[in-house]
C-alpha cells in the first residue's frame, strides 16, 4: 500500500487524473483484486476489459467511492479517495459523472427532472428556470431530441435511456466520465452512434473517460488504450496492437478470436473509407 498522502493535495493539470495503487478488494473469503495498479491519462478514453467476475465494475465503484477497498490507495483529481471522509469529498465528487449500466434513471421523474437531480444536490442556489435550461441543454448534448425532456424512462427505448443517463452524467460539467457497459443491449447501429458520441464529447468537452465494456467494436472505435483485468490485477495496459504483442493467452483469445478479428476488420474498413473520402 502506498504511503498516506494529504487528502487535499491538488495535482497539476497535466498529472494523471486517476491513479490506483495496490488495490485490494475482498468480499468475505473471495478476493476480487489483489495489488491492482492503474494510471489513467488525462484526456484519454480508457477501455477496461476482463472476464466475467474479474471485478471491472468493482474497480469503478472503488474509484468513485462507492466501494471501500480492503487496502490500497486511489487518487482522483488530486484527492485521496480512500482516505477522506465521504462528506469531505463532495467537491471532488461533483467533478465526475457516471453512467451506470442500464442508465439507473429515477422511474418517477421525467428525463429533464433526472438531469436536474444532481444540479439540485450540488447547486441548490440555481433558479428553477436556469436549472431546467441546463437540463435541456444536456439532453440535447447527449443526442436526444428536445421532446425527450418531458418523457418518463418507461417511454424511452433502450438506446434513449442510455443517452438520458449520459445527459445526467454530464449535468455538472464533469472532468471525468465513467461509463459502465454503455453499449450493452444496443443494436449495432445504436452502439456505433454511442461510440461516436463518446469520442465527440471527449474531444469537445476535454473529458477523460473510464469505459467498461465487452464490446470489441467500442474498443477499436472509441478507446485510446485498453486495460485488461485478469488474475486479480491489471495484467496489461496499452493500445490493442500493444496488448496483442504481450502474448498473454486471455488477451490473445479475446482480440484474435472470431469476434475480435471481425471487429478489427470493420475498424480497418472504416479507417480506409475515411482515408479515401
TrEMBL record:
Residues 18-256 form the ABC transporter domain. GO terms for molecular function: ATP binding; ATP hydrolysis activity. PROSITE patterns: ABC_TRANSPORTER_1, ABC_TRANSPORTER_2. The keyword Lyase does not apply. Keywords: ATP-binding, Nucleotide-binding, Transport. SMART domains: AAA. The keyword Transport applies. This is Iron ABC transporter ATP-binding protein. It comes from Erythrobacter litoralis.
Amino acid at each position: 500500500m502506498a504511503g498516506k498522502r494529504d487528502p487535499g493535495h491538488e495535482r497539476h493539470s497535466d498529472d494523471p487524473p486517476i491513479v490506483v495503487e495496490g488495490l485490494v478488494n475482498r468480499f468475505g473469503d473471495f478476493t476480487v483484486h489483489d495489488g491492482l495498479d492503474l494510471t489513467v491519462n488525462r484526456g484519454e478514453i480508457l477501455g477496461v476489459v476482463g472476464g466475467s467476475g474479474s471485478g471491472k465494475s468493482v474497480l469503478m465503484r472503488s474509484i468513485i467511492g462507492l466501494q471501500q477497498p480492503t487496502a490500497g490507495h486511489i487518487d482522483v483529481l488530486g484527492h485521496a479517495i480512500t482516505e477522506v471522509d465521504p462528506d469531505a469529498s463532495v467537491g471532488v465528487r461533483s467533478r465526475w459523472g457516471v453512467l451506470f449500466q442500464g442508465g439507473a434513471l429515477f422511474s418517477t421523474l421525467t428525463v429533464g427532472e433526472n438531469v436536474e437531480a444532481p444540479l439540485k444536490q450540488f447547486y441548490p442556489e440555481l433558479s428553477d428556470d436556469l436549472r431546467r435550461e441546463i437540463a435541456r441543454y444536456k439532453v440535447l448534448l447527449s443526442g436526444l431530441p428536445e421532446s425527450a425532456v418531458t418523457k418518463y424512462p418507461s417511454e424511452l427505448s433502450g438506446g434513449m435511456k442510455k443517452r438520458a443517463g449520459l445527459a445526467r452524467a454530464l449535468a455538472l460539467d464533469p472532468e471525468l466520465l465513467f461509463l459502465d457497459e454503455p453499449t450493452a443491449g444496443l443494436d449495432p447501429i445504436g452502439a456505433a452512434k454511442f461510440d461516436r458520441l463518446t469520442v465527440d464529447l471527449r474531444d469537445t468537452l476535454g473529458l477523460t473517460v473510464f469505459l467498461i465494456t465487452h464490446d470489441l467494436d467500442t474498443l477499436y472505435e472509441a478507446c485510446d488504450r485498453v486495460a485488461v483485468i485478469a488474475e486479480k490485477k491489471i495484467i496489461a495496459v496499452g493500445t490493442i496492437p500493444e496488448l496483442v504483442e504481450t502474448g498473454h493467452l486471455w488477451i490473445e483469445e479475446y482480440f484474435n478470436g472470431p469476434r475480435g478479428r471481425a471487429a478489427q476488420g470493420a475498424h480497418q474498413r472504416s479507417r480506409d473509407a475515411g482515408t479515401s473520402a
